[in-house]
Design goal:
The complex is a heterodimer of chains A (253) and B (270). Chain A is mainly alpha-helical and 253 residues long. Chain A has one domain. In chain A, helix 2 packs parallel to helix 5 and helix 3 packs parallel to helix 7. Chain A is elongated, with a radius of gyration of 21 Å. Helix content of chain B is 37%, strand content 23%. Chain B has ten helices and ten strands. In chain B, a hairpin with a 2-residue loop joins strand 1 and strand 2. In chain B, helix 3 runs parallel beside helix 5 and helix 4 crosses helix 5. The chains are: A mainly alpha (253), B alpha/beta (270). Chains A and B meet through helix 4 of A and helix 2 and helix 3 of B. The complex binds adenosine-5'-triphosphate (ATP) and magnesium ion (MG). The site of magnesium ion has 4 residues of chain B, from helix 1.
């Protein structure tokens, strides 16, 4: 029991070390990767466009649920007018960054991992190395940057549509006063709150993109290996996102 | 056949190489030379480590003992930048083609040129189309890799391997899955690029008869060592049972056809 725990701990430390070295190799190739704006633009488009539709749909529904639940809760204290600020704070600081990151990991992250894993399985990465092209420069770094840029943007979109969803339920359906709704929101959401959401979006973007490219790159070169890489991408991204979320919140509050 | 080779006359020298993977010894004291400007054939039964040998030469793996010299440099000791500089002068045809699936045929062949040079577009186009013409696939330059047959993909990969006129061209099973016409074309192409551009070629192949047409020197590997070497014609006339078995494709003889295994009967009875 003690030994298995010790082994797990050692494995975890070794895993973090490997990922850190992997990140260093990406940083080493960042300058030359940044010289290829076309490659990066297409990866931002890839990662962003892949997740855009589900981000929008989920943003709308999360906002609408927040409208219903928030109204129900606030009504008990007779403060329905605070719906705008309560829902906006929840979306900007927590739900937006976290749910967007989870959706991103499930949609774009798995696509990245399986794409790179398949390149590994079909010798494409080795072929690049033999052609003296570092796969980190041509494959890994552009995809990593694409994810890092895309997730904060997706987070903002998620938040905006989420607030629209709250408004749709709260104001249009349940009859909260339109003016109060917006002015309450504007009065209580500070720049720091938005910053916190943005920082979370950026940190989750780095974490989820890194996990996806790492799992894909180190996948075993078989169909099973690629499958395992995509699964690990979703699971690890979700766990790391929630842990990081707690840590950032604890530091920033 | 002379045993002494000076460093200048050999592009690749494998010296007493040991390598094992997954608890199996693949090479046990492998020594062989690849003379400059010649076509060298590596033959041997499936699973003897021919692809592994190519991976040693290109520095993808390191031997546990011995040296792999390519153009006077010990590949297993090179730093990553030095290794990449060396690889720029090597072209390799993979056993399965290994085309980049997100690029068209044209872009696949252009890939090494674009990555390493800043040639004007018109020149790149000229380079790529001449190489594709040489493998008979100029008309297919707009297709994506998934629209090619296995043999076509291999020919595109050959065009890509040649596109920068490397000093050393390595072919892993270039003839597998080719129809007789393509085979003839590729054989002639192999000879022509080697002679016209002064390249050195290493060809891994099982096709004993085809390889005899083009190779200047052949090595037969078995059980981790070179078991026979010489001009293909001389090998055909070699009377040693091992060479005869391989050249004539006989299942029984000194070269084991089977992967090492437990006794057949006891395995079946288990
Ligand atoms: N990752 C690995 N783990 C364990 N054994 C391996 C691994 N890769 C290769 N081998 C073993 O190494 C031996 C040599 O493999 P290699 O691919 O070099 O053979 P080959 O001579 O190219 O065969 P073929 O003619 O079929 O292509 C095989 O017996 C194989 O089982
Ligand atoms: Mg092979």
């Amino acid at each position: 029991m003690y030994n298995t725990f010790k082994q797990m701990l050692l494995d975890a430390v070794a895993g973090f070390g490997a990922v850190a070295l992997f990140l260093l190799r990406i940083f080493g190739q960042l300058p030359s990767a940044l010289l290829r704006p076309r490659l990066i633009a297409s990866q931002i488009h890839n990662a962003g466009a892949l997740s855009l539709v589900i981000i929008m749909i989920c943003g709308l529904f999360v906002g609408m649920v927040l409208g219903l639940q928030g109204y129900d809760m606030l009504e008990r204290f007779g403060s329905e007018s605070a719906l705008g600020s309560a829902a906006a704070l929840a979306l900007v600081k927590e739900l937006g960054p976290v749910v967007a990151a989870l959706l991103f990991a499930g949609r774009a992250g798995t696509a990245l991992a399986s794409e790179i894993g398949l390149m590994r399985a079909t010798d494409q990465l080795v072929a690049m190395e033999i052609m003296a092209v570092d796969p980190f420069r041509y494959v890994v770094a552009p995809r990593f940057i694409g994810g890092v840029v895309a997730l904060p943007l997706l987070t903002m979109i998620f938040i905006a549509i989420g607030i629209f969803g709250v408004q749709l339920i709260g104001v249009q359906q349940l009859g909260v006063d339109q003016g109060t709704f917006w002015s309450q929101m504007r009065g209580s959401v500070e720049v720091e709150d938005v910053m916190q959401g943005l920082i979370k979006g950026c940190v989750f973007g780095v974490a989820c993109s890194l996990i996806a490219v790492y799992e894909g790159y180190t996948a075993a070169p078989t169909a099973e290996g690629v499958g395992r890489a995509t699964t690990r991408t979703v699971v690890n991204s979700a766990v790391i996102t929630l842990i990081l979320d707690y840590m950032i919140t604890a530091v920033m509050l | 056949m002379s045993v002494e080779h000076s460093t200048t006359s050999n592009l690749v020298e494998i010296r007493d190489v040991y390598y094992s993977v997954g608890g199996r010894d693949i090479f046990q004291g492998l020594t062989l030379d690849v003379p400059r400007g010649k076509i060298t054939a590596i033959m041997g039964p499936s699973g003897t480590g021919k692809t592994t040998l190519l991976r040693l030469i290109t520095g993808q793996i390191r031997p546990s003992r011995g040296q792999v010299w390519v153009d006077g440099q010990d590949v297993s000791r090179l730093s990553r930048p030095a290794l990449y500089a060396l690889r720029q002068r090597i072209g390799m045809l993979f056993q399965n083609g290994a085309l980049l699936t997100d690029l068209s045929v044209f872009e696949n062949v252009a890939f090494p040129v674009r990555e390493h040079t800043k040639l004007p577009e018109a020149l790149i186009r000229h380079l790529v189309l001449t190489k594709l013409q040489a493998v008979g696939l100029r008309g297919a330059h707009g297709l994506m890799p998934h629209e090619l047959s296995g043999g076509m993909a291999r020919r595109v990969a050959l065009a890509r391997a040649m596109v920068r006129d490397p000093d050393l061209l390595i072919y892993d099973e270039p003839f597998a899955g080719l129809d007789p016409i393509s085979m003839g074309v590729i054989l002639r192409l192999l000879r022509n690029v080697n002679d016209a551009l002064g390249m050195t070629s290493i060809v891994v192949s099982h096709d004993v008869d085809e390889i005899a047409l083009v190779a200047d020197i052949s090595y037969i590997l078995s059980a981790g060592k070179v078991v026979a070497s010489g001009a293909p014609k001389a090998l055909k006339e070699d009377q040693s049972p091992l060479v005869r078995q391989f050249m004539n494709g006989l299942p029984d003889g000194p070269v084991p056809f089977h992967y090492p295994a437990a006794d057949y009967y006891s395995d079946l009875l288990d």
